[in-house]
């Protein structure tokens, strides 16, 4: 899928109407694509190179969807930062930076280029392989679980204010950081007030698997750290069937594949702060 067929690259790069872009690096990648950076790269058929990629999503003059993969990560990062600040920025990758032109889009895009046909996948004669498509998020599963964790990280204050710290029990042992677990969610109904049956034991398992990362480092990108107010860090860790979002100076939230729609808060207790600090030390960070 990631072949650099010259005709495919030319078809996508010639008069590409750029709609959006994203980074695919060890520290920043669309988590909907996988639990870690190599898994996200594999979803696009790309090798997990150390410096990562920029993904430019757009339409050609016929309206066909294309994802142009470039190795100039800084170029794409500057464009994204400018757009986030409400500034106009022309993203026009140099042909020499193009690694591959992949048919389709790996992510959902809600906009379309003006004055061209509606978005559609390019025909097989123009593409080297089947078109990319966003992961199915209609039902609860790994992709939806990771998207939920993304939302908590972005809207931490909204989720945090739903939690009454007095609801957490006083921990009494190494594994008791999970004893305060219960459902917590904004008013959109994504969670339940009393949490699922067996929640504490499942959270203990997640924390144990996260702690095991300290002895056996996981694939790159399984643990990521980003800026948070007050000198803290927002920590994100993923594993088989689970996602964890935390602030290094606060509590954590856990989402599980086998608990659809549930968001389980984890009180700090005596063990969680040290675990979060240790995970933060090993995490990859944006440059």
TrEMBL record:
Q: Which domain of life is it from?
A: Bacteria
Region Disordered, annotated ranges: 115-144, 169-202
Protein name (Swiss-Prot/TrEMBL): Integral membrane protein
- Which organism does this sequence originate in? Streptomyces virens
